[in-house]
Amino acid sequence: MIDSHCHLADETFAEDLADVVARAREAGVVRVMVILEGNNAAEAEQARRILELWPETRFAIGVHPHQAHQFAVDPAAAAAAVRAQIEATPAARAVGEIGLDYHYDFSAREVQQQVFRAQVRLARELERPVVIHTREADADTIAILREEGGGALRGVLHCFTGDTALARAGLDLGFYISVAGIITFAKATTELRAAVRSVPLERLLTETDSPFLAPVPYRGKRNEPAHVSRVVDALAALHDAAPRAVAEQTTANFHTLFRP
After folding, report:
1. What are the tens digits of pLDDT across the range 63-80?
2. Contact between residue 60 and residue 68 where contact means Cβ atoms under 8 Å apart
3. Could you confirm whether domain 2-258 is CATH 3.40.1190.10?
4. Tens-place pLDDT, residues 153-174
5. What is the pTM of this model?
6. What secondary structure does DSSP assign to 73-106, as a single string?
């Protein structure tokens, strides 16, 4: 199994990082993709600790839409900061998470869009995949990916919570769809389940988005990569497949996309 999106560099893991890594490996997780916030020195330092504990770890680096306001005066500076950090991080494989978030609007929407565009252009230049965050901004997110991607962009819609139309738009772009613990929730919508069921196993990834969104039966607790097995089980049920087959396929998908 692979946890294709987690935040192990978050401060919530600082005290027991070694135990978290040990539990993940014991659960059968062979690799994680850790998301690093661009220009965040504390997360960069924790990334070095993670690599010492788990050399198979890979990283994605990007300016999240919540932090886009830091680059309001010069959106291109966001891409420059991410470029520098990727060049200094040999285990970096992707630009992300990047995108748009109109739910909280911590950054002005126009600024979010400009910072997002700059980072998509960077990903194309570096020939790296993108890890996409979209919340209540799907139309604008897909439009920017189409306009800036040039048909050559690879990537994933992470923590997918959309409908079949969004899944189809992502697939049409050549993207993968990544599913998190939300799919295990009793309140997961019929629409979401139908959308995930419509995605071929060959285009699915699994993730925890830890420390957030702990799957059943861990809801209300801190999430961690070991729990990705619950997502695998949920996908297996939706696709009427064996959990082992889903784990093997999603692992192969991760390697195809991120070339670790």
Report:
1. 999 999 999 999 999 999
2. no
3. no
4. 999 999 999 999 999 999 999 9
5. 0.97
6. S-THHHHHHHHHHHHT-TTEEEEEEEEEETTT-S
